[in-house]
């Protein structure tokens, strides 16, 4: 996915957040359960191309061309429990510091590498989802503004599907296949929000599930031609979302 889409989503989310902030005055809530949802854009750091620059030179009759596209958006559902809170002194201010634990589900969308060649279109799709468990800490001011940090572990699952991809060495045997991979990775979430009354909080969240970036060097290609094998891992995923949380 192009990084510009993340920027556009961030600008839109900030605008919506400003509108929400103008809607009411907030008061700190008690500890307890909460439910929330978030909606935005994600960036999956996957292979940009399947074939090397040498593919057309080796097999010009195949006329291989590649393009990338993103199918989103990203969305999350989460539930948590704030189990501790106390007022602290922070630079002369006295915000409420809350600690909690949260579990959630995120659909990160689908990334597609399309390959056009002499025998018709082929593609590789990568769909990613995540389940996470996070420890959260929130600073909540009396005027409703709040800052949140979360850290924990995510189970990042990727589904890779290939269809009608040309084997440059044996063009008469195009490759198709499907595989699932799941890995456990650290996750970090940073957010800023505003509390509307004692039950509703709206905010902007940036989250990253840490992981490797794909190898884009020529050495990843077999015979300097192609890298048709599906990855054996799910890569790093970033997302920017606007979230709404309801405290019970």
Give me a quick take on this structure.
The protein has 248 residues and is mainly beta. The protein contains 2 helices and 9 strands.
Q: What report would you give on this structure?
A:
The chain has helices spanning 3-21, 55-58, and strands at residues 32-44, 65-71, 74-87, 96-117, 120-140, 145-165, 175-196, 200-209, 237-247. The chain is mostly beta strands and 248 residues long. The chain has one domain (3-247): Beta Barrel (Porin). An 8-stranded antiparallel barrel has the order 1-3-4-5-6-7-8-9. It starts with a helix and ends with a strand.
Main attributes of the structure:
248 residues; mainly beta; 9% helix; elongated
